[in-house]
Structure formats: C-alpha cells, structure tokens
Design brief:
This protein is mainly β and 293 residues long. Helices cover 11% and strands 32% of the residues.
Amino acid sequence: MTPATIAIPTELNHNAVTLLERSLMMTEQSDRRILAAIRCVDSITRRPISAPLQLSASGSRFIRNRSGDYILLTAPGFESYSHTFRLETLAAAPPPTTLDITLSDPSGYYLPRKFSLALPRPADPTADDALFKTLTVPLYPSPLASKNPGWAILRTSIVNATRQPLPWTLIEITPEVAQPGQSATILAQADWRGEALVIVPGIPVSTWATATDADADADAPVTTQNINIQLNLLFDASQITPLPADTDFSNNPNRDYVPNPDTLLANRAALLTSSHTLAVAAGSDRALTLTFT
C-alpha cells in the first residue's frame, strides 16, 4: 500500500518556518534614558512646526519622533547617564551643565536661533522644567514666511542714524489693546540683512474709537480700523557689526553669528534700544524703515 502524500502550500511552509524561528529567538532588552524633548512652534500662531528642522549642539545627538518633537539622546558628559536606567549604578552623576543648541530651518521660512538647555532636567513631574515636560521653543518668521490675510504686516528695514542696516535686531511689539488669547507682547527679529517681518495678528476689522477722538470732533466716527502698536528695538552692538550703508552684502561680517533671543531679552539693559509708535489695521501690508534714534 502506497502511503498518501499531502502537499503543503509553499506559503504555509514559509509561515511555519517563520514561527519556528521566532520561537527560537531570544529577546534583548535595551534601556535608554532621554535627556529632553523639544517642541518648535511658530511664534505667531503658537502651533507646532511640522516641517523638518535642524538642531545641533556640540557632542550631542537629536532625533525627530512621530509627533514632530525633537529628542535629545546624548550630550557631552552624559554618555553613561543616557545608557543607564538605574542611576544608582552610576559611578558618578553627571555635573549640571548648560547646552547651547542651534536651531535652523532649511526652507528659510523661519529665522535661525540659539537657545540654552539646562541638564540634567529634574525627574520631578511637578517641576516647571521637568524631564517629562516638552520644552517649547518659538521660531520667528523670516521675510519669506507665509501670512494670514487678516494680519497686519510691516516689512521693516532697520538702520542706524548713518543708514547702516542692523542685522538680528530683536523687536518687541506691544499692541495698544491685547486681543483675547494673545500675549501682551509679540516678538519678531530682523534677519542677517536687517530686514524683519513684523506680524500683528488678531486685529478686529473695526473697533471703538477712543473718547479723546470723539470729543475732538462731534462728527468724528465712533469706530476705527486702526490700533496703535509700540515697537521696541533691541540691538547688541557688542556682538553684531552694522552692515555697509550701500547695502553691499557680499562681505557679511556676522556670518557666524546666530542670535539667542532669550539672552538678548535678559541683557536688554546693555543693548542699544529705540522705540516707535505706529498705527496698523487688519489686512494692511506696508514697507517702512525704522531708524535707531
């Protein structure tokens, strides 16, 4: 009697072998400690920036996760720390340090900037700078950035008294009346040429005129389309060289400079400052020159 032969389909053979291989495999556990999570947001909308950005710091490594946040995996002095899950097994804890990080946008829609990160971040979840909380870093739009039709736009050139462009000037914008849900102060920054895109969002199409305006003229309108804003300019003359007045940008003396807006604000007492008051309206778009006086 001839024994019966049963043909097993090839795909079943393959699946059986795969299951056998998996049953024989040994799993390896890999523990890794991250140092920080960083979220880059648009300084105007406060929304996360979805386009890929570049983060760099000496001796450090970043990766981008599925949410678009940037994870700091290693930093100088934290090599053993980042690969050790049980900190009590470390021979010595890494000393506190501050990491200077440079952030840039390959598309050019946002200006490059630096920011500082204190390490290690505390594991206490109630701390403001806890390891479990994402650090939010705002990026300021460049003159190439997209605009909302309802925003007030000022395309500004910032110069000194001798008409020399002042690169990387930081600009504080304070609307006369802060709109609901918005910060009382908006920040912008000039690029390496001294050109800045100043955006004032959330301006009503019309608003009530001030009592002073109405009292001055009985026939004056009770509504207005304009609001006043104050622009405070901050320029670091100790770190940045003004450009030639003839706008010859072929030789950029500040080629290696990248601003840290947080440091500029903290050191504002040592900076050159100038203030300007302007009227803007929703949907307006104009160019002007702001001069340090």
